[in-house]
Design brief:
CATH architecture: 2-Layer Sandwich
Number of strands: 14
Number of domains: 1
Strand order of the largest sheet: 1-7-2-3-4-12
Shape: globular
CATH class: Alpha Beta
Distance between the termini: 23 Å
């Protein structure tokens, strides 16, 4: 159980937080809705099979707090195989036109707005055929503040630079080697100035998650005491129900996950329209990716 939970923590630290492994199933209470970062179990009685864990990571477009009735700017399904210690992040562009269970067809980012994290989970499960174990939701406030508390520097090379004054506010010079909290948020939000638009942005978001995992391993490798800094940031910005001693054990094991063993794949899409709306349609080739991810827990 500890090893399995530790790998889950590894995925969640990629967005500066830890999901409450040992806590009760999440609800819709006010304390959960108000936290900058929230998360919980999907199926109360489900136990991951063959050491594979899947986590739905959602980034909302809420400018303050973390309301669950906002739209999702980021939709990622993270998986890990605790036997092979390999994983993957499967990215869904927010404009993907999909069936939302019980709510018709719409952009995938509408699922969070219409039914909170629970409906977002059901939507991705219905698309992929993968049973999801946990969900995680973060918004601008929790994301940027947690990065600052973790040293305000995430090593990530941005070769082409980013300049998006009218959108994300990005002003990142070419060949930048690391990002602070403000630049990190701009990096994962930028789409208008990118050739591939939202498709490139969703891949960049996964790149950032993997870079943060790399930072965790580097921090602890240089100074094991840095684990306490990660624990402090975690407890400050999340709704958490894990005792400190257990959190420390999980964090130590987390540092064993190698960032190069976490694949980054965006579902194949084609630009189109639904009525007057510009959307993207997930292509049939995605099914083979879903099947491989479900079988291996990695990409």
């Amino acid at each position: 159980m500890i090893k399995r939970a530790a790998v889950l923590i590894a995925l969640i630290t990629a967005v500066c937080v830890f999901v409450p492994i040992a806590g009760s199933r999440s609800g819709s209470g006010s304390s959960m809705a108000a936290a900058p970062v929230t998360g919980g179990r999907v199926h109360a009685d489900h136990q991951p099979e063959d050491g594979k864990i899947f986590v739905l990571i959602l980034g909302s477009d809420a400018r303050s707090g973390n309301p669950t009735n906002s739209r999702a700017d980021a939709v990622h399904l993270a998986g890990i195989n605790t036997k092979t210690m390999k994983g993957g992040i499967l990215n869904f562009p927010r404009d993907s036109w999909v069936n939302i269970p019980g709510s018709g067809t719409a952009r995938i980012n509408e699922a969070l707005y219409r039914g909170g994290p629970e409906l977002a989970v059901r939507t991705v499960e219905s698309i992929t055929g993968i049973q999801i174990d946990y969900w995680l939701l973060t918004a601008f406030e929790g994301f940027q503040s947690a990065v600052k508390d973790l040293g305000n520097e995430v090593p990530l090379e941005v070769k082409q630079g980013m300049h998006d004054p009218g959108g994300s506010g990005a002003d990142i010079e070419p060949n930048t080697k690391s990002l602070n909290g403000a630049d990190s948020l701009a990096f994962v939000r930028t789409r208008k100035s990118l050739p591939g638009g939202d498709v490139t942005r969703t891949s960049n978001q996964a790149r950032f998650l993997i870079a943060l995992l790399r930072k965790l391993r580097t921090d602890i490798g240089r100074s094991p005491g840095r684990m306490f800094d990660w624990m402090t940031a975690t407890r400050k910005w999340t709704h958490l129900d894990i005792p400190p001693h257990e959190l420390f054990q999980l964090g130590v094991l987390t540092s064993q996950v190698k960032s190069q063993d976490v694949g980054n794949v965006t579902v194949p899409v084609q630009v189109g329209s639904a009525g007057a709306a510009s959307v993207v349609f997930i292509q049939p080739g995605a099914q083979a990716i879903y099947d491989r991810f479900k079988k291996n827990g990695s990409l």
